[in-house]
Amino acid sequence: MIRPDIHTQLSQWLHHQWLVRGWLSLAMLPFSWIVLAILSIRRCFYRIFPSQVYHASVPVLVIGNIYVGGTGKTPVLIALVNALKQKGWHPGVISRGYGVKIGPMPRTGQGALDPTEFADEPALIARQSGAPIAVHPNRRKAIEALLTNSPEVNLIISDDGLQHLALARDMEIIVQDQRGAGNARVMPAGPLRESTRRLSQVQAIITNVPSLPAEPLPASRTTRQDAALTAHCSHPQNNSAPRTTYMALRAVAFRHLTSLQSLSPTEFKLKIMSQTLGAAAGIGMPERFFNSLRQQGLTLAESLALPDHHSFDADTFSTFKTQHILITAKDAIKCEQLNDTRLWVVEVDAVFSDAGFTDWLSATLQKHACKGSHNPAESIQ
Q1: Which of 55, 59, 271, 320 suits 49 as a labelling partner, its CA being 20 to 30 A distant?
Q2: Distance between CA 336 and CA 330 in Å, rounded?
Q3: Taking a C-beta distance cutoff of 8 angstroms, is the pair 181, 117 a contact?
Q4: In this structure, are residues 198 and 74 in contact, taking their beta carbons and an 8 Å threshold?
Q5: What single-letter DSSP state applies at residue 309?
Q6: Average pLDDT by stretches of 10, the chain with 381 residues
Q7: Do the bridges between strand 243-256 and strand 262-263 make them parallel or antiparallel, or are there none, so unpaired?
Q8: What's the confidence (pLDDT) of residue 11?
Q9: Domains, the chain
Q10: Which backbone phi and psi does 139 adopt, to 5 degrees?
């Protein structure tokens, strides 16, 4: 096995500390109170000055997380974009373009985009969904550029942005994983960007799990405790408990990065039989990717955990001795120019436990589209 680099080891140690209320969390608690105070001041500012909140001319759906790091938000967003397109919507996606210097003007595009210009996650979303994309830290600028360049867009989906109070939104979805709220404390004493009260203020919570449960899982402790709390400020009012569903990622194909050959999971297992296999991942939770491969019956002789948004080059895989190396689709868009014939991309689909979730989502968005200044979505099923 290949040891992760020092950055990844430190990140893993920190996330482990955030799952408990140990000495480190206690020592950092005063700083968390400062963060909570700043968040409260920001909320009050937008409550007092509502004119500073931007309202788009079409419905806005924010998909984000309160747990810092990867929770599986990107595959959820891609799955929901594709599902809403099938129901007649014309969604466009906005993102801050993390890790890329955007400049004063937003960048817009569609289809195969350069990750060095748009960032890895927006490039992946554009490629797998076909939806138009706009990237800029200022989400108002991103929306205006997107609607100018793609006037057919009748729904904005914001990749993250739960804490971007300057943007009004019609619906919010939180994506979490089995870590839930960790130790339920805000950074730096815990892993949360804001209080667990946000869990009761959104319209839906999607929990990323290794496999879908046969029966519904019990609600998390923090969800039960905070269920009675109400929304405030620029958050959309939510007078009922959030709709909850579980999501699991299912491998649907293994794509050879250089030849583009695509094999089903069964075909891939037959192909690599008696050959050595490794895996590398530069995502928020690399071990989640490695464990999912093992659960499919694949034996990993080597694995390499890298920091999220890692910049891949030829040296990244130089220590691997295996005949094949599995990578994520997010990492693959940054590895296409490496011409490493060992690389295989694991293509996944997001599967939801609630079969009616996307129907409910589309119907709820349609209600918002028919209100006030929003343009009604045409031909919505």
Answers
A1: 59
A2: 11
A3: no
A4: no
A5: T
A6: 65 83 92 96 95 95 93 95 97 93 94 92 95 96 97 96 94 95 94 94 95 61 36 52 94 96 96 95 91 94 91 91 96 93 96 95 91 44 36
A7: antiparallel
A8: 76
A9: 20-248+352-369 (3.40.50.300), 250-349 (no CATH)
A10: -70, -25
